[in-house]
Automatic annotation (TrEMBL):
<dbReference type="GO" id="GO:0055085">
    <property type="term" value="P:transmembrane transport"/>
</dbReference>
<feature type="repeat" description="Solcar">
    <location>
        <begin position="114"/>
        <end position="206"/>
    </location>
</feature>
<keyword id="KW-0812">Transmembrane</keyword>
<protein>
    <recommendedName>
        <fullName>Mitochondrial uncoupling protein 4</fullName>
    </recommendedName>
</protein>
<keyword id="KW-0496">Mitochondrion</keyword>
<keyword id="KW-1133">Transmembrane helix</keyword>
<dbReference type="GO" id="GO:0005743">
    <property type="term" value="C:mitochondrial inner membrane"/>
</dbReference>
<feature type="repeat" description="Solcar">
    <location>
        <begin position="215"/>
        <end position="306"/>
    </location>
</feature>
<dbReference type="InterPro" id="IPR050391">
    <property type="entry name" value="Mito_Metabolite_Transporter"/>
</dbReference>
<comment type="function">
    <text>Facilitates proton transport across the inner mitochondrial membrane and may dissipate excessive proton gradient associated with oxidative and metabolic stress at neuronal synapses. Regulates glutamate-induced proton conductance in astrocytes, shifting the energy metabolism toward aerobic glycolysis and lactate transfer to neurons for ATP synthesis. Can transport chloride ions with lower efficiency. The transport mechanism remains to be elucidated.</text>
</comment>
<keyword id="KW-0472">Membrane</keyword>
<dbReference type="InterPro" id="IPR018108">
    <property type="entry name" value="MCP_transmembrane"/>
</dbReference>
<feature type="repeat" description="Solcar">
    <location>
        <begin position="15"/>
        <end position="105"/>
    </location>
</feature>
<dbReference type="Pfam" id="PF00153">
    <property type="entry name" value="Mito_carr"/>
</dbReference>
<keyword id="KW-0813">Transport</keyword>
<comment type="similarity">
    <text>Belongs to the mitochondrial carrier (TC 2.A.29) family.</text>
</comment>
<comment type="subunit">
    <text>Homotetramer.</text>
</comment>
């Protein structure tokens, strides 16, 4: 095992991938109900619009969560959690390893400072690569999250589990259908990681260089709070577009029926519901990203410390 300049062991990338995936799994299970709430809020606007101005089923984050518990049962708040965990094993594992690798390649300055422009490039590239590889699991997650609502509306279920969802998608549209909506997916991931990875890395090392804070959980918590807010602000519009494209019905050729592209979805959403529709679900997005980011980064840093790996 190699050591860095400070003598701290440098673990292989596979080990860092596994540790990143473990931290992401903990964060995902803790905050998944908020992700389900966010998805329902984002989808219901287009459903009401297609039904000629019918009233939205849910109003606000709390009303959505209570409605799901009352109408479908409390366990339905974790519907779709399995593919969500699968997604983060791939997504978070790849993005964290990729970012650290890019950071090593691009290089820090002599005072251990990683310039903001380099951090921004690294965060966006790492997020884009990780999300592209995880897109199939993200598609399955979104579809499974909407199954409870479909049943209440008297519609037949589209999928009966993760394995069946994958088979159904491939049988209807081929392997390429697993990457339906990958463009807005990757766009969102690039923006989110510009907010998350870049902000956390920049704020954390800024605090270490310019304040009396040590490399402890307090520093990690402050940096993760900032990263969650910035990530939610930058990623919500792309998240709305991504969710609508991935949830739309598809024709025999596997292509979407409602939207031709992410730009078309953006235009239709703004025309039909106004610009504010792009920030529909922002509150649950932020309220999910804030605890997710804090849980992930605190877990990630603590696991690294426990395993003898240098701090992020």
């Amino acid at each position: 095992m190699e050591e860095d300049k400070s003598g701290v062991p440098q673990w292989p990338r596979v080990s860092k991938f596994i540790l990143s995936a473990c931290a992401a799994t903990v964060a995902e299970m803790v905050t998944f109900p908020l992700d389900l709430t966010k998805t329902r809020l984002q989808i219901q606007g287009e459903v009401a619009l297609r039904q000629h101005g019918s009233q939205a089923a849910y109003r606000g984050m709390l009303g959505t969560a209570l409605g799901i518990v009352r109408e479908e049962g409390p366990l339905k708040l974790w519907q779709g959690a399995t593919p969500a965990v699968y997604r983060h094993i791939v997504y978070s594992g790849v993005r964290m390893v990729a970012y650290e690798q890019l950071r090593d390649v691009l290089g820090r300055s002599e005072d251990d400072h990683f310039p903001l422009w380099k951090a921004a490039i690294g965060g966006m590239l790492a997020g884009a690569v990780g999300q592209f590889m995880a897109s199939p699991t993200d598609l399955v997650k979104v579809q499974m999250q909407m199954e409870g609502r479909r049943r209440l509306e008297g519609k037949p279920p589209r999928v009966h589990g993760v394995y069946h969802a994958f088979l159904k998608i491939v049988s209807e549209g081929g392997i390429r259908a697993l990457w339906a909506g990958w463009v807005p997916n990757v766009q969102r991931a690039a923006l989110v990681n510009l907010g998350d990875l870049t902000t956390y890395d920049t704020v954390k090392h800024f605090l270490l260089r310019n304040t009396s804070l040590q490399d402890t959980s307090l520093c990690h918590g402050l940096a993760s709070t900032c990263s969650g807010l910035v990530a939610a602000t930058m990623g919500t519009p792309a998240d709305v577009i991504k969710t609508r494209i991935m949830n739309q019905p598809r024709g025999p050729n596997g292509r979407g029926i409602l939207y031709k592209s992410s730009i078309d979805c953006l235009i239709q959403s703004v025309k039909g519901e106004g610009f504010i529709s792009l920030y529909k679900g922002f509150l649950p997005t932020w309220m999910r990203m804030a605890p997710w980011s804090m849980t992930f980064w605190l877990s990630f840093e603590q696991i690294r410390k426990t395993m003898g790996i240098s701090s992020f």
